[in-house]
Each structure stands twice: as C-alpha cells, then as structure tokens.
C-alpha cells in the first residue's frame, strides 16, 4: 500500500510540473508521455529496491535481537536461587503469569528429585482459585493429613514455599522466635497483614518481588476466606507439628509399603539417606546393623516419629551430649537416654536407641561414636527433605543466615 501511494504522489508531481504554463514556455504533455511514464516506473523501482533492501537488513537484525533476548532470559534463570528453581520445576499451576504449587506439588518436591511428567502448567482463572479456596479446611479443622486432603485443590505461592521449607528444617524452638517476629504489635497473636510482613521480606527473592497478592490455601487456612482471622502461637506450632508428621509419614510409608513396621535396616536407611554420609560409605553403616542387631523387632511409625522429634531439638540434645565429652566419659545408651530426656522431656524407645548405637558404634565397643553421630545427624537435620546441600549455622544465627541467603538468591 505504501509503495502504491508513493508512486501515485510521484506521478501527480511530475504531471503538475509538465503542465505548468510559464510566460515564455508552453509545454504539451502529449509529447512527454513516454518520458513521464518511464520516470514514474523508474522511481517506483528505486523505491521498491530500497524498501526490499532495508527489509532484508531488518529481517537479518531480528534474529540477533531475539537471540539477545533469549540470552537475557537464560541469565535470569541462572541467577535464581536453588529453591526458586526447584519451586518453578515442581509448580504445576499458573495464574497471571506467576507459578504456583498445589499441596501435591509441595509434597512431591520433598520426596522426589524431579517432578512428575506433565504437559505444561495448569492455567487458573480467578473462578478456579475461588473454587479451590472454598474447600480449604479452617485452622480448627487442621490435621496431620491436611495437604493430602487438599492435594490438587489448593494453592501455594513461592514465599509460602520458603516459609514451609524453613518450618520443616528448623528446630521447634525457633518457630516461637519466628512467630514473635510476625507479632509486630506484641499482643500474642498475628493477623494476616502481620504474617504477610515477613512474607514480603522473603518474597524479595525472585518470584514474589513484584507479585500482587493472591489469596492462597495457607492464608485461608490461617485467616479464613475473609482474611479477618487471628493466629496464636499454639495453633501455629500445632500446624508445624502436623505438617512434619504428614511428611514423615509419607517417607515412612514409601519404605513400609503399607505395613505397620519397617525393618531395622530400613530405619537406618531413612536416617542416613539425606545425611552427610557419602553414597559409597552407606553400605558400611547398613552392614553394622545387619551384623549386630540380633532381635529383629522392627520399627513402628510412632517410634520413627519419636526419634525425629529429637532431631527437632537437636542443638539442645547435642549440648547435653557434649557434657559427657567434657567429663571425658564415653557415651552409653543410658547416657544417651538422659540427654534425650533433658532436651525433649521424654525417653526414647530402648530398641530404637540400641539400633542407633549399632549404626554409629564404629569399633563395636558398645559406646556411641559421638562425633560421627553428631555430624551425620546434623546433616539430616539440614537436609531431611530434598533441600540444598549447604553449610548452615546453628541457632538464631543459622536462622538469619538461611533467610539472608534466600534473599540474596544464594
């Protein structure tokens, strides 16, 4: 269209020029018709050639722009933290261009190295989300199978994913510190805005930075559909305990295949599978159990859960255990029980303690190889679910380091 218009303008201009009547010159257009026609066609050809040449140059420039844009996208993907990349890999839903997890995705990310095969992300509408949230149980109806109940009919944002991972990998006593951080006005409870204040800090890490607020299953569970509910510490701690139990039961059942007990060797496998023990050394630990445990009574889920409760207060347990080192005394099973009682308030099942000793008694003298046990279990505390293998400080400093690393995208 542009070429036709240009040709028309040129033709009219030439015709006007040759039809002018000057005082001394009278020009007849009939004599110059061939010249006019040739001029128009020639000019049009020049225009077309110039256009095509520029078009070729433009088309050759486009791939370079697209390649540069693609490279920027790749660099942005590489700059994301480990957990953000993992979140994006397992998130099966999308709303307004942002990825979201379902409770099923979250549980799967804790158990598996890679997400299940699927065809693209499920794009949600506002109506889809409203239907999901109406099925979310209230905090009063919380249970140790909450995520399995909601399963694919729930929504979790990236900041909430970080929060849940932190809750599952940090000692129980640090939850109270975190809750006090949420409670900005010091009244013993938090509302939705106070809870979101911490999430906004976490959300500076990548996905949530410019993300508009979307009502999610966790928010509805804590604060109700209208968002006007309140959350006290006891309810908060109960939610964390239930979530840990739900995830540990999933691990246990993966090994037990529906049976009420697992073998002592399987229990040992669960203890060291996500610990600092190298893969080529794990068979040595399992061989000790096979050779030394004479009575195969099996391990129930309640016994497995009880031992993991010890790991939730592992820093305090280590302090109690270190006292025997300061006194230059080897740690016996009785001493181990006393340290457990001092840190958790309860004794462990004697059979479980005996199995633990067989795993970590290197020289077979009936005493615990304390440093080996502490190093291995510290690794499990940090990575008892599929999480990043990194050095983590202990206590409150560890909590700050963990949060700081996530904000930096490390």
What does this structure look like?
The chain is built from 19 helices and seven strands. It has helices at residues 2-18, 33-79, 82-90, 103-111, 126-134, 146-150, 158-169, 172-182, 192-202, 217-223, 233-256, 264-272, 282-292, 301-312, 314-326, 333-344, 350-360, 370-383, 395-408, and strands at 93-95, 98-100, 122-123, 189-190, 231-232, 261-262, 299-300. Helix 15 (314-326) packs across helix 16. The longest helix is centred in the N-terminal third of the chain and has 47 residues, at 33-79.
What is shown here, in short?
This protein is mainly alpha-helical and 410 residues long. Helix 1 runs antiparallel to helix 2 and helix 13 (282-292) packs across helix 17. A hairpin with a 2-residue loop joins strand 1 (93-95) and strand 2.
